[in-house]
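Milestone 3.1: sequence recovery, worked example.
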């Protein structure tokens, strides 16, 4: 079964996109259609043994039958939309001019009717054409149907200005909706426009510019200051500072040198780099992130799914109620039919669901864009909604709350000078690959290293070496006791290196895993966001985990856990929690726990396939501050969604009541539909603006 991506240029109607999906999935050659409206594309999975070419003409016919201006392009991303549809803009301007002329020129009643009729034809013909296509497809209960019936009904009742106004302002609303949708799409594209189309490749000693998609693994590319890294690779020559902000949201540059990995989308600030390509164009980091963000924007939240389902049954119900109002109420009350037909038409205009259908997904789309700009990739609005419901955070310790690298906390010598003592220990440990040994590298000079000979690593215990003729033994308490010496008893969370020199116990070095900068402020920030419980799951020693928990004010610690035991403890916490449980880890060895949690957050996932695959939220850098920020963005986005829903429904219900009482006119109905839609759509764009509390938190 093959899946193809088909780009849908000029797709501007969310409801139409849903109808395309439903219609295409009825074709026997197609197994599944994933419609990504905000990305203007769909992923079409063919039945086994079927090819896209066998059915492409049918796909094109169906899509154009639903929205005639849509252009289908296979496997080729579309360019940015300029905003307004020029044909629609010209049509609206022409219609508005004729409409104004009908009021300004004293041409008599017949002349005005002609001018209003011409205006209506100019404005309404694309809407009516779409309605006719929908009727042929037996799926016509949509906004085109509501607006056509309402406007034609007004004409038949002799309300010519109001009939034209319904169609004019509906078209103006459609134009502004299209502008908002395109602005939102293009802002995401601009944010993630981090993939260079070409790269300078060195082949057989000759430099040439080659399309990035044609570059192979193993090719060597040259990247100069100001240029973006086009493909993931390893530096084979050069030193540079890299701007990582496009991927990680971090403002501080990263220093790189020979042997370091670099990723597509990073910008070279200074220096020239020779990079050996390690991934193809489609598998490079920036390409994978681009796909992730675009597809995430179309994965629906509960609110979004509800609105989509609601709109499918909502329109038929509205039409039936309007028909009952027009036919039965006059019979029951004895009032004129014309009066209640007018009220029924008003009811149809007010009831159009455009404000909800568009503003809800746009709000989430804007929120996802705001998060992406800060290096927070949320895999869909559903997970953004879940973040708002989290009340328990569970953390991995090493590499998440701590740096995962050790530093010297204190050291003590029994007989010799302390500085001489630490210099000898550092020189002897220099050749070891043990993580604890790396913490001592800064304490020894090159001359000290030259004094070391006969180095030997004792597996699982320590090292043995000769320093200027002195026999040095460094390692665990067990190693010192095996040498028939008595080490100082050390208790607590820190790692210990005991030292013996020339057969005498000389002292110890205490090392600690450094807690990440701002970790305490982040825990406080989570508490302020309503997080009631914070837990550590660690494979480290109990005392080491408890030490970190005590310093950060964490509620519960489970230590010395294997990966499967971490899952068990996570399930214990999920049973206790009243809300959702979020697990934060490094995305590689924590993959099972990330998958099991309600929301899994992978930190520092730049270039990590495992992290991007396993987690629901991906932090491209290892900054803990992004955790409270993600909660703030989720809450703001949800707040805007609810504000739009309450505002849209509130205004519509208010005008409906006025209309039923005979107080409201078609002008108020037009505002309740088009005006509310425009306001709600532009309101949804507020989700792209980070709340002030984020700036205040990051400033601290």
């Amino acid at each position: 079964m093959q899946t193809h991506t088909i780009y849908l240029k000029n797709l501007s109607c969310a409801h139409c996109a849903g109808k395309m999906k439903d219609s295409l999935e009825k074709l026997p050659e197609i197994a599944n259609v994933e419609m990504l409206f905000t990305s203007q594309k769909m992923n079409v999975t063919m039945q086994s043994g079927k090819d896209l070419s066998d059915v492409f003409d049918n796909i094109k016919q169906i899509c154009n039958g639903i929205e005639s201006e849509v252009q289908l392009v296979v496997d080729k991303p579309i360019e940015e939309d300029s905003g307004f549809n020029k044909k629609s803009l010209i049509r609206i301007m022409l219609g508005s001019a004729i409409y104004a002329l009908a009021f300004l020129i004293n041409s008599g009643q017949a002349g005005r009717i002609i001018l209003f009729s011409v205006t209506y034809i100019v404005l309404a013909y694309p809407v009516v054409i779409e309605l006719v296509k929908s009727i042929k497809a037996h799926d016509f209960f949509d906004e085109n149907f509501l607006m056509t019936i309402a406007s034609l009904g007004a004409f038949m009742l002799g309300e010519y200005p109001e009939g034209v106004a319904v169609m004019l302002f509906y078209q103006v609303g459609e134009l502004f909706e299209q502008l908002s949708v395109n602005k939102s799409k293009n802002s995401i594209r601009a944010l993630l426009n981090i993939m260079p189309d070409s790269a300078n490749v060195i082949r057989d000693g000759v430099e040439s510019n080659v399309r990035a998609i044609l570059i192979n693994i193993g090719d060597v590319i040259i990247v100069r200051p100001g240029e973006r890294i086009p493909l993931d690779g390893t530096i084979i020559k050069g030193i540079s500072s890299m701007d990582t902000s496009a991927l990680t949201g971090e403002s501080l540059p990263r220093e790189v040198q020979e042997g370091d990995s670099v990723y597509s989308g990073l910008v070279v600030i200074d220096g020239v780099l020779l990079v050996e390509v390690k991934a193809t164009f489609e598998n490079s980091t920036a390409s994978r992130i681009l796909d992730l963000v675009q597809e995430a924007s179309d994965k629906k939240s509960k609110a979004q799914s509800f609105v989509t389902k609601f709109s499918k049954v909502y329109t038929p119900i509205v039409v039936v109620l309007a028909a009952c109002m027009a036919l039965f109420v006059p019979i029951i009350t004895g009032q004129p039919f014309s009066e209640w037909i007018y009220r029924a038409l008003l009811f149809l205009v007010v009831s159009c669901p455009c404000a909800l259908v568009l503003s809800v997904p746009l709000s989430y789309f804007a929120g996802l864009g705001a998060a992406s700009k800060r290096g927070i990739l949320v895999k869909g609005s559903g997970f953004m909604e879940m973040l708002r419901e989290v009340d328990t955070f569970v953390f991995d310790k090493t590499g998440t709350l701590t740096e995962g690298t050790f530093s010297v906390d204190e050291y003590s010598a029994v007989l010799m000078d302390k500085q001489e003592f630490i210099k000898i220990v550092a020189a002897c440990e220099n050749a070891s690959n043990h993580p604890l040994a790396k913490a001592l590298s800064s304490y020894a000079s090159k001359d000290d290293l030259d004094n070391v000979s006969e180095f030997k690593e004792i597996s699982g215990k320590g090292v043995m070496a000769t320093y200027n003729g002195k026999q040095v033994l460094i390692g665990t308490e067990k190693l010192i006791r095996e040498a028939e010496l008595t080490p100082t008893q050390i208790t607590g969370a820190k790692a210990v290196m005991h030292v013996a020199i020339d057969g005498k116990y000389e002292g110890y070095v205490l090392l600690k895993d450094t807690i990440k900068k701002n970790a305490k402020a982040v825990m406080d920030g989570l508490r302020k966001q309503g997080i009631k419980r914070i837990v550590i799951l660690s494979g480290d020693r109990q005392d080491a985990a408890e030490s970190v928990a005590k310093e950060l004010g964490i509620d519960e610690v489970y230590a010395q856990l294997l990966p499967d035991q971490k899952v068990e403890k996570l399930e214990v916490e999920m049973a206790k929690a009243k809300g959702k449980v979020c697990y934060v880890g490094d995305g590689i060895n924590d993959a099972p726990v990330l998958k099991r949690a309600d929301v899994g957050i992978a930190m520092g996932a730049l270039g990590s396939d495992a992290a991007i695959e396993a987690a629901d939220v991906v932090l491209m850098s290892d900054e803990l501050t992004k955790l409270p920020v993600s909660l703030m963005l989720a809450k703001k986005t949800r707040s805007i969604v609810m504000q739009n829903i309450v505002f849209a429904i509130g205004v519509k219900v208010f005008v409906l009541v006025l209309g039923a009482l005979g107080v409201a006119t078609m002008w108020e109905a037009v505002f309740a539909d088009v005006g509310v839609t425009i306001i709600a759509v532009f309101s949804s764009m507020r989700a792209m603006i980070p709340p002030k509390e984020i700036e205040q938190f990051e400033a601290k």
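Residues 112-188+298-363+638-688 form one domain. The chain has a mean pLDDT of 83.
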